[in-house]
Amino acid sequence: MKMLGKNFQAFLLFSFILYAVPCYSLPLKTQGRWLVDERTGERVKLHCANWPAHIFPMLAEGLDKQPLPFIASEIVKNNYNCIRFTFSIHMFTRYANLTIEESFDRLNLKKAKAGVIKHNPFVLKMTVPQAYEAVVDVLGSYGLMIDADNHISEPIWCCSNDDGNGFPNDPHFDPEEWIEGLKLVAQRFKGKTQLISIGLRNEPRGKNQNATLWFDHYIMEAAAQVHQANPDVLVIASGLNFATDLTYFKSHSLKSNFDNKLIFEGHSYSWGGKGNPWVDGSVNKACADKIGSLNNNLAFVTDGENAVPLFFSEFGIDRKQMPARDDRFLSCFSTWAAEKDLDWGLWALQGSYYLRENVTNMEEYFGVLEIDWDRVKNPQVERRLGLLKQTLLDPKSTAPLNYIMYHPQSGACVGEGMDGQIRAGNCKGLTRWTHNGHEGPLELRRTGLCLKAISDGLPPILTPDCSQTTWKPISASKLHLASKDHKGEYLCLHLEPPFAGNIVTKKCICVGDDPTCKDNPTSQWFKLVETNIEN
């Protein structure tokens, strides 16, 4: 830490003693499609939350609401192991000597400044880069990993096609200043292994974007400079079109992986494309189209001999209003992310902003935390993300592949209850299932018992007669687990709110080709997710 003062150093030591949790062995490197511990080769899976610091007044959001140790402890308590911590280039190139107090005063943020004085007074006399570093140090003392993400050049809200920050040589995107800013960040954190990566640029976009220039010139130059300044950190390269497009690499190869340090990132939300297919059309088709697009435009980089890790560094939903569009998107996306066992970053941690788009104390509806940063905004969403926070595939494991039966709308996994019936419950420690992945018996592993549908509205049973039970994924989404009853009609597994755990079979919802079927089928979405992790 660069001369941050004895008071803060004492504060940091106190935080470490009181709250520290075991750290990962760092730094990390790539091994095919995986991120692994550079020393041991063990896989490290990232399940992150985004925390902005890139917007005026250029301080990590929320330090006016709660003490930094409390916020860090909430991150850990909710089982996030890393923070994608955003910064703007100008924080390190143009505002490097501006103190946090001066920054708040310039914006006349009197109430927010009073909150910082109350909860985190140690940052006020720090410069903007020092305060950014101080937050990284405290997060690291909690065992959290940090991705320093260059979100934008100017310290403004991001992103739009016409904000002048979308692509090198746009009005506010000076490529030389950009690379200089990245180098300053890389140098500042050299030797601080809790900072595992530097995101070179968030969401390139706009009319001037060019795949050859971006991937073969700008990314190579920026990554080379960062790698030279700090060889320990991963370097993260974003896809084009708001981080949704890596298709350049279907016909081109990476010029360098910088000693197994380069990874890609992608983003997705419920919007994009035409209209609102999650509500106005077939939800199964909307999900199939979303997954097809994600695989075709982004996830293909994790396949084949030249596989590269994909860090899915942004997805999220409106947790406050929970519109149907977001609710259905999350269920769909979660099955895909679980199947791929991706590293990911949720948008976002923050419950509020000091100043966003000229509005003070604006609430972030997508935030994990409430507007006062004192509690989780929507605990049910955290439960739905539970399986994604587990490591499901281990490249070093010799265990056979089995399945977890996952219900994304509730976040529950399916196993045998105390009464011998199958029930939905916590995803940790549940019995695995075996299946051929296409059509066949669905067996509770190591029991010799297979799942059998009885009738519409009744719970399925476990039977030792596996020869008479067949299950397969059907519908456009392939998320309905269906079996024929004694009449030869398909019944689907079904779990309704409030998700008390009682699973039945019912007539399948919108599984045909009718594009006008708009009923919500997510109560019947069950995904068989591969795992080679022994429970």
TrEMBL record:
Residues forming coiled coils: none
Source species: Populus tomentosa
Name of protein: Glycoside hydrolase family 5 domain-containing protein
A Gene Ontology BP annotation from the UniProt entry: polysaccharide catabolic process
Signal peptide residue numbers: 1-25
InterPro entries from the UniProt entry: Glyco_hydro_5 (IPR001547)
Glycoside hydrolase family domain: residues covered: 73-350
GO molecular function annotation: hydrolase activity, hydrolyzing O-glycosyl compounds
Keywords assigned: Hydrolase, Signal
The keyword Zinc appears for this protein: no
